[in-house]
Amino acid sequence: MKEYRKGPVLLRGRNVPTTSTAGHLLDSQRDIDWLHGDPWRVMRIQSEFVEGFGALAEIGNAITVYGSARSAPDSPEYRAGVEVGRLLVEAGYAVITGGGPGCMEAANKGAADAGGISVGLGIELPFEQGVNEYVNLGINFRYFFARKTMFVKYAQGFIALPGGFGTLDELFESLTLVQTRTVQRFPIVLLGSDYWGGLVGWLRDTMAAEGKISEADLDLIRVTDDPLEAVEHVVSLTRDNP
Ligand SMILES: C/C(=C\CNc1ncnc2c1ncn2[C@@H]1O[C@H](COP(=O)(O)O)[C@@H](O)[C@H]1O)CO
C-alpha cells in the first residue's frame, strides 16, 4: 500500500496526497489569500515582539515620554520635551517615545543631542511617516498593542507631556497597569499643570469622589511644570531598583 509521511503524520492509501508541503512552499502560482489571513497575521505579530525584544533588551534604564504628535517646535511643551530628554540622558536613562513628531520628536531631540540612547517606536499609519530624525534606535510597528508592550516593558517610569487621544490612551493604560500592580514602582508624571489640571481635578472630584478609583490611586500621578522636577521624581523612584 502507498504511504506518505507528513511530518509526524502517517498517511496511507487514499489519504496519500498528490502534492508535498515543500512543493506548496515553492509553488509561485498558488493563491495568496493566506497572506491576509489571521494565522499569517499571528506570525507578523510574533515577529514584532521578537524584533522589539531583541532591539530593546540591552538599552538599560529608560523612561518613556508620551505627548502630542502636533506640538510645534516653538511651543512651550516642545521645549519642555527637549529639556526632559536631555535631563533623562544626563541622569543615565535612555528615552523612549512613539518616534513621531511634536513632543515625541522633542524628547528624542533632547536625548540625542545629549549623546544618549533615543528610542523611537514608530507606528504604521495610513499616511506616510517615518520616525523623527532624532531617533538613534528606531523600530517600526504595525500593531499598536505590540508597540505599547515595549513602552512599558523597557521603561521604569513615564512622563506625559500635553497630548490628545493617543497620549491619554497611553497614560491610562499605564495607570491601569500600575493600579492593578501588573507593573510595580512605576512613577507617572504629568508635565504641565494648566493642561492636565482639569483632568486631574475630574479624577479627584468625580472619579474618586464617586468611588470609581480610590484616593490612593491619585497618588500614582505627580503633576509638575518643571522638567527637572519631573525627571528627579522618576529617577528618585527608579534609581535604586529599576
Ligand atoms: C497626527 C500626526 C502624526 C501622527 N504620528 C504619530 N506617530 C507616532 N506616534 C503617534 C502618532 N500619533 C499618535 N501617536 C502616539 O500617541 C501619542 C500622541 O498622540 P496624540 O493624540 O497626539 O496625543 C504618542 O505618544 C504616540 O505614541 C501628524 O501631526
From TrEMBL:
EC number in record: 3.2.2.n1
GO molecular function, one term: hydrolase activity
SUPFAM superfamilies, per database record: MCP/YpsA-like
Major enzyme class: hydrolase
Matching Pfam families: Lysine_decarbox
Protein origin, superkingdom: Bacteria
The name this protein goes by in its record: Cytokinin riboside 5'-monophosphate phosphoribohydrolase
One of the record's GO cellular component terms: cytosol
Keyword Lipid metabolism: no
Native source organism of the sequence: Demequina lignilytica
Record flagged with keyword Lipid biosynthesis: no
Keywords: Cytokinin biosynthesis, Hydrolase
Lineage: Bacteria, Bacillati, Actinomycetota, Actinomycetes, Micrococcales
Reactions listed under catalytic activity: 9-ribosyl-trans-zeatin 5'-phosphate + H2O = trans-zeatin + D-ribose 5-phosphate; N(6)-(dimethylallyl)adenosine 5'-phosphate + H2O = N(6)-dimethylallyladenine + D-ribose 5-phosphate
Family the entry assigns: Belongs to the LOG family.
GO biological process, one term: cytokinin biosynthetic process
Alphabetized NCBIfam families for the sequence: Rossman fold protein, TIGR00730 family
